[in-house]
Amino acid sequence: MKMRQGYLWAAFCLWALTFPLLEASSDGLVRIGLKKWRIDYKRIRAAKMARSTKYIGDRLKSMYQGAGDSDGEAVLLRNYMDAQYYGEIGIGTPPQNFTVVFDTGSSNLWVPSTKCHFSIACLFHSKFNSRLSATYVDLGKEGEIHYGSGSISGVFSQDNVQVGSLSIKDQVFIEATREASLVFVLGKFDGILGLGFDEIVVGNATPVWYNMLHQSVIHEDIFSFWLNRDPLATEGGEIVFGGVDRRHFKGQHIYAPITQKGYWQFEMGEFLIGYKSTGFCEAGCAAIVDSGTSLIAGPTAVVTEINHAIGAEGIVSQECKEVVSQYGNMIWDLLISRVQPEKVCTQIGLCNYNGTLVVRPRIKTVVVEEEEGNGTRVGNEVWCTACEMTVIWIQNQLKQRRTKEIIFSYVTELCQSLPSPMGESVVDCGRVPFMPDVTFTIADKHFTLTPKEYILKTGEGITTVCLSGFIALDVPPPRGPLWILGDIFMGVYHTVFDYGNLQVGFAEAI
Predict the structure, then answer these.
(1) What is the C-alpha to C-alpha distance for residues 242 and 222, in angstroms, rounded to an integer?
(2) 3-state SS assignment for residue 153
(3) Is there a contact between 265 and 258 (Cβ–Cβ < 8 Å)?
(4) What is the pLDDT of residues 164-196, one digit of tens each?
(5) Local structure of 123: helix, strand or coil
(6) Least buried of 44, 80, 82, 247, by fewest C-beta within 10 Å?
(7) Are 315 and 423 in contact, with CB atoms under 8 Å apart?
(8) Can you tell me the distance from the alpha carbon of 35 to that of 41, in angstroms, rounded to the nearest whole number?
(9) Which residue has the higher pLDDT, 376 or 133?
């Protein structure tokens, strides 16, 4: 069992839990218990990955063994605020345990390394120690992976990997020696296990999924996801390699052929709001099903219609107030100690500084990374922008020699006056029962989400906040318009990734 190393804030102590090795049940499935975490805005900051790196979280509670009717190897997933899911793997001989995102939107495996000395994120997570593995091979090559809200870099290594009771020999992975983003600090996973096609793999490494097939550790070239959306359930979900678990869906899967390898991309038809046509995607749109994306991303024109129909409003004021509450004292102390105002947000990790100017971090999905040359970016600079505004406001008030209490009260009032940019949106929780259903058309069949299914609820009582599950993403032709169907969609529809027949299938989850 491994103990988390290093703490920066006392709140993070709750995350320093241990992880036992996986055990196989009598039916050949491997199940890992999980525990729910209460949703709040601080955790949304860690898990808000609708267009970014896939951050997940929560820790092990107990082992589960059951008698499901499954044809493959199952690994139970842990659920973090109904937003993202992760499971556990082992690397090395004997296995060193890590929590990873099983991500259909990328193709590499990486975990932090004990050689990671200068990234704060490495302090919070399990790290691979090559000296403790009898089967480790140093490949002597460096690599870097760019995700939505940050990047990791490190060295390519080779070792055995344990996924459930499956043992994959000589798997190439990256030992991350640098994790360049604050979100990796906040993220509660250790690494990422990519399940995309090898067309998008970095460094010519063979993906774990491909090695499962090549080494014949599974008998059928499919894998499937069940994501539990029950907020009161202990079991967060399940991924089955080499089959499906028939307990978790009803009826037959509807399949759509893969139209472009790399991501699990297919053709989607018309999109309906309240069973009425939006006129969008009548001629077809590209869609990607992505287990590492929390929300549903779609074209601005349609998401605007959705948010108008459900009465959604931007949450920038909440984000601004969150900056004040979480980082206000640090901003105050840095300004009092005469740190240059333009460097304050960099020092607390909310912006990047290149020596002459502030460079705001851009959060973009891997899907659109290669479009950067054409200027296509999916940006979310709210936290950096909110920090910069807070610094300016506090600095101006300091010049007027006002007290800290008065300044913070004033800054909070300013936050409430901010306009709402395009991005995550809040809705009136009392209106949820009266909001319209939304419907996706896939393979000429309708897949409907009810308001309870596409709204994320946080908090309880008077502190309850409801978030729209839709976020805007614009990708121009020929690649777009593009939809990304993330965990909100996959939670409603059990999803099969059929590598052998190059198709994805959806059936109603139970």
Answers:
(1) 5
(2) strand
(3) yes
(4) 889 999 999 999 999 887 667 767 789 999 999
(5) helix
(6) 247
(7) yes
(8) 19
(9) 133
Our CA angle for 72, 216, 222, nearest 5°, is: 45
Q: Burial level of 22, CB count in 10 A (0-12/13-18/19+)?
A: buried
Residue type, 227: L
* DSSP designation for 200: G
442 forms beta bridges with 268, 445
Give the whole-angstrom CA distance, residue 36 versus residue 17: 14
Those residues with Cβ within 8 angstroms of residue 290's Cβ, 6 or more apart along the chain or in another chain: 103, 104, 105, 263, 264, 365, 367, 484, 485, 486
For β-strands 237-241 and 222-227, DSSP reports them as antiparallel
Higher-scoring residue by pLDDT: 466, 136: 136
- Read off φ and ψ for residue 218, nearest 5 degrees: -125, 160
| Dist. CA 469–CA 396, nearest whole Å | 37
Nearest to 471 by CA among 382, 385, 389: 382
C-alpha distance from residue 289 to each of 215, 461, 490 (Å): 26, 34, 8
| Count of all residues that appear for the chain in the document | 510
**R_g of the chain computed on alpha carbons:** 22
Confidence of residue 72 (pLDDT cuts 50, 70, 90): low
In terms of Cα–Cα distance, which of 52, 83, 16 is closest to 149?
A: 52
Of 41, 12, 14, 80, give the one whose Cα is nearest residue 459.
Answer: 41
The one-letter amino acid at 340? Q
E-strand stretches of 126-199: 137-146, 151-163, 166-179, 191-194
pLDDT tens digits, 262-320: 999 999 999 999 988 887 787 889 999 999 888 899 887 788 788 878 877 665 566 77
Structure-token match 């020699």, residue found? 401
Q: 3-class secondary structure for 72-110?
A: CEEEEEEEECCCEEEEEEEECCCCEEEEEEEECCCCCEE
The pTM for the full model equals: 0.70
Q: Nearest-CA neighbor of 290 among 330, 324, 262?
A: 262
DSSP state string for 291-319 = TT--SEEE-HHHHHHHHHHHT-EE-HHHH
Nearest to 37 by CA among 18, 20, 12: 12
- Determine if residue 109 is left, alpha or beta; phi over 0 gives left, psi from -120 to 50 gives alpha, anything else beta: beta
Q: Is the distance from CB of 66 to CB of 197 less than 8 angstroms? A: no
Cα 90-211-209 angle, rounded to 5 deg:
75
The encoded tokens of residue 20 equal 């036992």
**Residue 381: predicted pLDDT:** 60
As a whole number of angstroms, the distance between CA 259 and CA 507 comes to 20
Report how far residue 395's alpha carbon sits from residue 384's, in angstroms, rounded to the nearest whole number.
16
Q: What amino acid positions are annotated as catalytic residues?
A: 103, 290
- pLDDT score at 356: 41
